[in-house]
Amino acid sequence: MENNVFEQMAKRYDTAERMELANIIVKEVRTELQNSQSKSLLDYGSGTGLIGLALSDLVNSILLVDSSEQMVEVAKAKISQRGIANAEVMHSDFTQGTPQHKADIVLMSLVLLHIPDTTKILQELFNSLNDGGKLIIIDFDKNDKINHPKVHNGFSHEELKERLAEVGFKSIEIRTFHHGNHIFMNQDASMFISSSVK
Question: Which among 105, 145, 180, 189 is least buried, having the fewest CB atoms inside 10 angstroms?
Fold first, then answer.
């Protein structure tokens, strides 16, 4: 993961467009988190906490994890400003190995497209889930208009299902929930939510 890009972006990351997209994602994930008051949530690739912190009222505890130290610092400042008692941050990159942290729910929103080895990260997230835990992924549907050396051009549902099953996930559901203009590398695109159980 090219950290320096995200380090430079951290302070000005929360643009109006990003916040608007985050609100759409939060709304979708909230329905997925019904009855999770006793559960722990790990938001992997949390960035500045735009999505994770908006879900903190639905879970017992939330850990925001990001490989960019600057992003983590911005998230930490938000937590103290808003007085969110059940949220913590961790500077870590799971592609370098799984930390000894287990969670009931792992959320990864618009992160998978930045990770070259998707199978490895899915395996690490599987390992960081408690038994019966749930992995929620939000990302872009496959988009042939996108061509970038550092970013996947989205994912086909079948391909992702296969990868998730490969690393051990069960009852995998994937559905597209939003179509937007200029939301993926300035192209019109659609986003899916995937929910898989360990």
Answer: 145
**Residue ranges covered by each domain of the chain:** 3-177
- What's the Cα-to-Cα distance from 159 to each of 16, 22, 67, 119, 176, rounded to whole Å? 32, 25, 26, 11, 14
93, 111, 103, 94: which is closest to 128 by C-alpha? 103
- Residue range 162-191, pLDDT digits in tens: 999 999 999 999 999 999 999 999 999 999
User: How many Cβ atoms from other residues are within 10 Å of residue 34's Cβ?
Assistant: 8
Q: Would the pTM count as exceeding 0.90?
A: yes
As a whole number of Å, the CA-based R_g of the chain is 16
Cα atoms in the Cβ-side hemisphere of radius 13 Å centred on 176: 14
